[in-house]
Amino acid sequence: xxxEQTIVGATAEKREDAVTADFLxxxxxxxxxxxxxxxxxxxxxxxxxxxxxxxxxxxxxxxQPWRFLVIQDQAAKQExxxxxxxxxxxxxxxxxxxxxxxxxxxxxxxxxxSGLVKLGAMNEDVKTKYVAGIHQNxxxxxETRSLKIAATDGGLVSMQLMLAAKAKGYDTVPMGGYDADxxxxxxxxxxxxxxxxxxxxxxxVKASYPKTRLPLDEILTWNKY
Length: 225
Fold this sequence. Notes:
- By secondary structure, the protein is an alpha+beta fold.
- The chain has 9 helices and 4 strands.
- The protein has one domain: 3-Layer(aba) Sandwich (NADH Oxidase), CATH 3.40.109.10.
C-alpha cells in the first residue's frame, strides 16, 4: 500500500513539474508578432475559447469590467487601419480584439455575488452588505481612480488573453498606438466603456526581435526601497 502511494505521489509530482515547465516555456516563447498570414482565419469558436480563458483573470472586487470587441470583418479592419496609424497587422491578422473596460461594471455586483450565494460560498445578508459597499465605493470614484482601475483590470485580462492565444498556437501583439477618440466614434463604443488596448491575433509569418530584458537584479528590491 505504501509503495502504491509512493508511486501515485511521484506520478502526480512529475505531472505538476510538466505543467510548470509547459507554462514557463509558454511565457518565454510568447512574443509580440507584427507580421501575419492574411489568408489564415481563426474560427469564431476558438476565439470564444480564448476569451473565455482570458475572462478567468482577476479583477478589482471581481467586477470583471472587461468587454471585448472582436473585429474580424475585412471592411471593419480597413476602417480601423488609419485609426491604428496604419499598422499592417490590423489588416493581416485574423482579428483585432479591442479590450475595453466598463466604468459602470459595479452595477453588476448584485448579479455577480448572487452567483456566490447560489454556490453556497456567501449568505444573502453578507452579499447584500458587500454589494451595498461596492455601490457606495465604486459609484463615487473620481474619474482618475476609475480609469486606473480600468487600466489595471484591462491589463490583467489582456495578458491572460495573449497567453491563452499562444497556448492554442496563435500569435498576438498588443497595440497602444491608435487614436482612442476616433476609435470610440467609428465603432460606436458606449460612453461608459474605456478603450484599454487593441490586440491583433492570428498566425505569425515572421519572428519578432529576440527578447532582451533588464537583469532581474536591476528591477528587484526586497521589502523596502
